[in-house]
Amino acid sequence: MFHLQLERAHCRALIAVLREDALADNARRRLAAIEQRLADAPPGRMAVLTQRHGLDPLAVDFVWTAVALAAEPRLVAHAEALDGPVARRGLTCALYSRLARLDDADGHALALWLARANPLVDAGLLGVADTAYLPAAAPVAAAHRLVTFLAGDDRPDPAVAPLVVPAGELPIDARQQAALDELARALADRRALVIVEGPRGSGRRTAIARACSGHLALAVAAHGDALDPLLRALGRELALGDALAVLVDLVPSSDPATVAPLRARLEAWLETCRGPVAITTTQWSLDVRTDRPVVRVRWPIADVQVRRRQWARIAEQHGCTAIEGDVDQLAMQYHIGPGGMARATRSAMLGRVAPTSLAATEIVEGIRHNIAERLGGLAHRVEVRQRWDDLVLNEDTLDQVTALIARVRHAYLVLESWRYGTKMARGQGVAALFSGPPGTGKTMVAGLIAAELGLDLYQVDLSQVVSKWIGETEKQLARIFEAAEEGHALLLFDEADALFGQRSTEMKGATDRYANLEVNYLLQRIESFGGLTILTTNLDQSIDKALRRRLASHIVFAPPDDDERERLWQTLTATGGAPLAPELDFVALAHDFPTMTGANIRNAAIAAAFLAANDRSTTISFDHLMRAARAEYRSMGHVLAERSLGKRGGG
After folding, report:
1. Domain map of the chain by residue range?
2. Do residues 166 and 142 lie in contact, with contact meaning Cβ atoms separated by under 8 Å?
3. How big, in percent rounded to 5, are the helix, strand and coil portions of the chain?
């Protein structure tokens, strides 16, 4: 059918160019034979377009000629001879009238069909030149996808990905089955807009493919400024067959100047799109204004028992014979869906040829490899070098830190086996507030907790998170929480009062209102987060009261007393390689500088080492420590009087 139509168009053009030449008679005979073969041929793929878009025979013939001009090289030269250079841009109504020898009535009807709202033009299957051309002289080009479709190629545009259900369906829990049933009911309505909300990698697209009742689901990753060409590509595919349109993780641009036209384009496309449309998003309550009936379906992460089975199935699909180690802890600790599991498994399997087993620790490394990419500069990984031996805390504070570690380490036993998880309102994550003066060890303890639990410590970069654009700060925070939840990293918000400050009760302007919205979002996200979050602050009273109620632990780091300062001097000056003088008087140092914290003592110890190196001394003496301590004390804003110093040890 396809090649016959191309040859038919070529014969018509040859006849129009040659007119009464003898070669034209040969072309007429060939054309008559082709017409007979076409009359006897089955309808072919054009019948799909004819039925879906209500094309009459004249429109069908015009479309075939436009396709022939795009696909038959010999036809281009004849078209240029008849219509001039404009033929390189497409088929005009005037040129087609000459090729098909239309009478006046058919020529008028075709020109009006092209000038009015046209389903093939709206779908992007035909492209009409700008309005500077007269309607009868406007070039009409067949889209490349239309040409390949009629030629028998079912491969969609590279920008459009068919959604398929993977072989060996993964198990789902009762909540996911309920969401799947709701999704199937919604997609049965051809006018429905279904918004599927859930974390990335949780299986939203697979759920849509399972729920669309055998129809082909076609998806585009619709991000920002690239939305417009993606919608055109998706629209062409939908015009060629009965399919479900899926917009994956719809994220508009953060620039308000571009948001409005993109939103308008999306909403206009939704009104012209035939069939149901699904949108996947990580943003709760994504706002899309449309006359379509809207159904929102929340796709949850599976429960722990099902996640354990999913890990085993996904590992098997990737050629892994078994997962060795504590798979229960793996399922409990990492609150991720099949997409995240598959990425982690692929990372862990890199370099392996033959089927083999994987250790749970190798899969954990695979998860960690993926989290940094997801955070995208919004938080940076902090390497923990300190040890518990370096920590000096009073017993009460240390007990609180130990209890916080136990809350994370034994979550599976308490929340799942002992079923205390049923008593929790929302998430099973842990949020802790560390408050106290600067230098008392808050950040250091956060790092030690991360190391103890085998977690990566990610410190949130507030300069990258906070944005002047309305809603952008919340979007960046959502990315951080989603990535941390998937990788089960410890999130550290240093100087948290900058984000979690008290909400204003007096609305003096838009600034107060939007600041309150940011805090409200943070409170909700902290509560639903499934991982460990630590907030540190020097301004205890500045933290919002509602946040305090959501805390699993509030640990106050008090300034060290005399005994603790003495231990800090001992701990922070000793490195195992430093040439310390014998019998240093750490009691005197602790007594003479009573307001020093651990950070100040560390600075003084390092400064003393440099003083000793500069003096070419063989040891770091008490005098070096005293000189460095006095300098640090002055930098803290203290005025030091000349007075006798404590006992000088060594040197």
Report:
1. 2-150, 161-298, 304-375, 388-556, 562-635
2. no
3. 55, 15, 35
Determine the topology of domain 161-298 in CATH. Rossmann fold (3.40.50)
Per-residue pLDDT tens over the stretch 130-167: 656 677 788 889 999 999 999 999 888 888 889 888 76
What is the distance between the alpha carbons of residues 330 and 407, in angstroms, rounded to a whole number? 16
Of 229, 277, 276, 275, residue with least CA distance to 52: 275
Note the pLDDT of residue 286.
64
Give the whole-angstrom CA distance, residue 597 versus residue 68.
82
Closest CA to 559 of 602, 596, 513: 596
Q: In this predicted model, what pLDDT tens digit does every residue of 580-595 receive, in sequence order?
A: 999 899 999 999 999 9
> Is 388-556 in the same CATH topology as 304-375?
no
Q: Is the pLDDT of residue 646 over 50?
A: no
Q: What three-state secondary structure class fits 129?
A: coil
Query: Sorting pLDDT into bands at 50, 70 and 90, what band is 510?
Result: very low
- Is the CATH number 3.40.640.10 carried by domain 562-635? no
Rounded-to-integer distance, Cα 205 and Cα 220, Å: 11
Q: Which residues are within 8 A (CB) of 223 and not within 5 positions of it... i.e. 6 or more apart?
A: 249, 250, 251
Among residues 518, 519, 516, 498, the alpha carbon closest in space to that of 507 is found at 516
- pLDDT tens for each residue of 16-57: 888 766 677 888 888 888 888 888 888 788 988 898 888 899
Q: Write out the CATH class of domain 388-556.
A: alpha beta
How many whole angstroms separate alpha carbon 533 and alpha carbon 529? Answer: 8
Q: How many other C-beta atoms are found inside a 10 Å radius of the C-beta of residue 334?
A: 22
Question: Residue 23's closest CA among 35, 36, 34, 10?
Answer: 10
> Among 1.10.8.60, 3.40.50.2300, 3.30.420.40, 1.10.3720.10, what is the CATH number of 304-375?
1.10.8.60
Q: What is the pLDDT of residue 543?
A: 78
Rounded-to-integer distance, Cα 587 and Cα 600, Å: 16
Residues in the chain: 651
SS (HEC) of 529-597:
CCCEEEEEECCHHHECHHHHHCCCEEEECCCCCHHHHHHHHHHHHCCCCCCECCCCCHHHHHHHCCCCC
Work out whether strand 243-251 and strand 216-223 pair parallel, antiparallel, or are unpaired: parallel
Q: What is the DSSP string of 402-463?
A: HHHHHHHHTHIIIIIIS-GGGG-SS---EEEEEE-STTSSHHHHHHHHHHHHT--EEEE-HH
